[in-house]
Design goal:
CATH class of the largest domain: Alpha Beta
Radius of gyration: 19 Å
Largest sheet: 4 strands, mixed
Number of domains: 2
Helix content: 25-40%
Strand order of the largest sheet: 1-2-4-3
Oligomer: single chain
CATH architecture of the largest domain: Alpha-Beta Barrel
Structural class: alpha+beta
CATH topology of the largest domain: ADP-ribosylation fold
């Protein structure tokens, strides 16, 4: 296993919290085996890890398949990198009010809050026709998984990445849909997109981010690189495979 981290299972959130209470300050991290929704094996959920991690200053990053009924989620002490999302701040505030937030969790949030992720500029690719001053908000269906409503707006600091997202959105849209790339500005805190950062690549080389806050459109970008017809055909095949698989989106 990468980094020689041990693999561990927790049958309940109570077991997870008890383990973190004893190990959060000294342990390098673990791969937590999480059972999928259709499994009858008792297990913590991803949200259990998220909440306990906020309380103790740990974070979830890479995800790897294990077997047909479960997957492995990397769970390690939080590093001084980036910001935390509005959702995580709300969880931290709730944990604080419940008396469950620990000093380690408070220190980790303060450390992360002080480190900027990226200075931009930022771009968003879509098939929607927008104008300067318009707001992009969460709550729309995913382009990649049917039935999933997205809790974040996604964007990137790379113009070609936004262009690819725009062309995929247009390809999956109604006939006549056109791709658009916009220069945008997040109106609140944002975080690394966990679906394409440590989950697939070390760090964040694609400079991909997401936010639960609105994104303000500054203007449309015209000069962005377009995909070839062959490349779009290859993406169409990949997306069909993804939409038909049981792969999960970290939403």
């Amino acid at each position: 296993m990468p980094e020689e981290l041990e693999t561990i299972s927790f049958a309940s959130a109570e077991q997870l919290w008890a383990w973190l209470d004893s190990h959060h300050a000294t342990h390098p991290g673990v791969w937590v085996r999480i059972q999928k929704a259709n499994s009858f094996v008792p297990s913590v959920s991803f949200n259990d890890l998220l909440e306990a991690g906020i309380a103790y200053g740990w974070s979830e990053s890479s995800r790897r398949g294990f077997d047909a009924g479960s997957y492995l989620q990397k769970f390690t002490p939080r590093r001084a990198l980036g910001t935390t999302s509005d959702r995580n701040l709300r969880i931290a505030q709730r944990l604080e009010s419940e008396g469950r937030m620990t000093p380690a969790g408070r220190r980790a949030l303060a450390m992360v809050e002080s480190t900027p992720l990226d200075d931009g500029p930022f771009f968003h690719g879509t098939r929607a026709e927008l104008g300067a001053g318009d707001h992009l908000t969460a709550g729309y269906p995913s382009n990649y998984k049917p039935g999933v409503t997205m809790n974040h707006v996604y964007f990137t600091a790379l113009r070609d990445g936004a262009g690819l997202a725009a062309e995929i959105a247009a390809m999956l849209g109604p006939e006549g849909a056109r791709p658009h790339v916009y220069l945008v500005e997040p109106a609140g805190q944002f975080e690394n997109d966990p679906n394409v950062t440590d989950k697939k690549f070390p760090g964040n080389p694609t400079r991909s981010f997401r936010t639960a806050a609105p994104m303000v459109v500054i203007g449309e970008v015209i000069d962005w690189p377009h995909q070839t017809p062959e490349a779009l055909d290859a993406w169409r095949i990949r997306l069909t495979t993804l939409r038909e698989s049981d792969a999960e989106i970290i939403n």
